[in-house]
Amino acid sequence: MMELFLNDNLGKISAEVNESPRAQAILILAHGAGAGMHHPFMHSMAQRLADMDITTIRFNFPYMEQGRKSPGSPKANIETWKMVAEYIHNMYPGFPVFLSGKSYGGRMASHLLSAEPLEYVKGIVYFGFPLHAPGKDSKDRADHLKTLQIPQLFLQGSNDKLANIHLIKEVLLELPNPTLEEVSDADHSFNVPKKSGKTKSEIMEFLSSTAASWIKDHLD
Questions:
Q1: pLDDT for the residue 6
Q2: What is the pTM of this model?
């Protein structure tokens, strides 16, 4: 565990590194809107990726660090993303860096890279891009993704109420360098019904191995 001081306005945040002794790349993983970096999904994903030669860093947004439930203004969280990315890039010079997030965390990363491309970031991984509110299908939240020239990996459940899979596919048709990996029957948390015959561990293995393989294919 480590603490990062951002600035006088944002204060300090917690971060944790799952380091791989054979690291080929660095992945920075941001949490979703309602759960911090210690959520079981975050912890499991970070460890699995580290086991696959991807050093993974998790961090809390300031609102989560301060015990607040609402993310508040995106501005502070996008600013946090930038400062964390720059800190980690300096901490691991020479390593390819990828940004990533569960739901909200990934969307904030995409807004950062849309507003200010970072030359050392090789790609972005979305563990469930939150395209719209439940029951309010729309593609508006994806408009800025068209400006991203780096590779983007979308790991999406086919039963995600925050991302109609048909709309996700339409969005990808408009992007310069996208990849979609669909998880059949999975919801926004990547849970699947028992009748699917899949276990949570199997889903996590698919997500982590797919992300790791994609990252290794985009190191240059």
A1: 87
A2: 0.96
